[in-house]
Amino acid sequence: MAEGPVAPGDGSAWVFGYGSLIYKVDFPYLDRRPASIEGWERRFWQGSHDHRGTPQAPGRVVTLIEAPGALCRGVAYRVDPAVFDHLDHREKNGYVRHRLAITLDGAAEPVPGLIYVATADNPAFLGSAPLAELAAHIAQARGPSGSNRDYLFELARALRALGSHDPHVHELALRVDAVLGATRRPAEHG
Ligand code: BEZ
Q1: Ligand 1: which of 40, 62, 154, 164 to mutate, most ligand atoms within 8 Å of CB?
Q2: Which of 42, 83, 99, 174 has its CA 20 to 30 A from that of 180?
Q3: Domain for residue 7, yes or no?
Q4: What is the DSSP letter of 105?
Q5: What pLDDT, on a 0 to 100 scale, did the predictor assign at position 90?
């Protein structure tokens, strides 16, 4: 599938990206806008068997958890409906589409759109754990799409580029750095 902006078509729809969709844009889009959604927060609570882990040793990737009053920053794309076939396949490990209102930066009114969300009832859901445990897990997991740590670091970088600080993501990135530093140090000095 071609990547990047394409000419406007009929029947387009907005999809809000809060994870890899922010930085891994392997689909065509009509418009791309920094945006936010209300009432949801990003959490590394979904298991990844197919991208950043394996069925035997799943990684951890983000999903959205309902949280009244929370605001989640990300990027919204206006896409042709055909793009959903691609995204449905890419995000097939437990994610379902959910309709909601998306606030595009600078727009007066929210627009209707979609998110992909992995809810607690999907078999790959791992749920909450202390940040130290999440960091230790992410530091060592790896799957067909690469290391789990790079997924986290790329997301942290992309959010910083949006001017957004997400304490869950950025604290985890610091902790994974610390775990990696601790495991590298004996080799470097030994
Ligand atoms: C996203 O970046 O919006 C996304 C994250 C996980 C699954 C599907 C989409």
Answers
A1: 62
A2: 42
A3: no
A4: T
A5: 74
